[in-house]
Amino acid sequence: MQKEFKNIEESQVVISELMLPSHSNFNGKIHGGYILSLLDQIAFACASKHSRAYCVTASVDTVDFLKPIEIGELVTMKASVNYVGHSSMVIGIRVEAENIQSGAKKHCNSSYFTMVAKDDKGNSVAVPGLILKSDDQIRRFAKSIKRKNMKKKRVQEFHETDFSSEKYLHILEDHKAKIELNS
User: The pTM is what?
Assistant: First the structure.
């Protein structure tokens, strides 16, 4: 029997991995694609732990690469359910890298993955709600609602069948764009 509401702490996941030369790009930093793969894995684990169902990635709303990660650093990812809808969950992930020799830590990445719980036939299934116990948890839930509403508004505003470029030409003036419309 699935719980109707769960504490956020029940679904949190933390993983740590040492960054190896095989994870690096041509510049000697850890490849962003490798970090994205780890982010998707921890988002899946957190969402599945919360929903007790198989979960799929519906969207990646934000991935902010803040600082590069070096070979030899210990990367720790912390995932929490920030928001739940009927079958969807927003998983917030914080990525920190630690220089093992000095102990210095840096915040390298923040990400928000929207995951959807599915049954064995691929149908969306209901997920438990969240019990919010702190201002921080309420802030994260509310921020997810705002992000979801802004995304919906952006999709509606820029839908190709209703879009009129004339309404937006003025905002391009200070950017590196040269307009050559075919008449």
Answer: 0.89
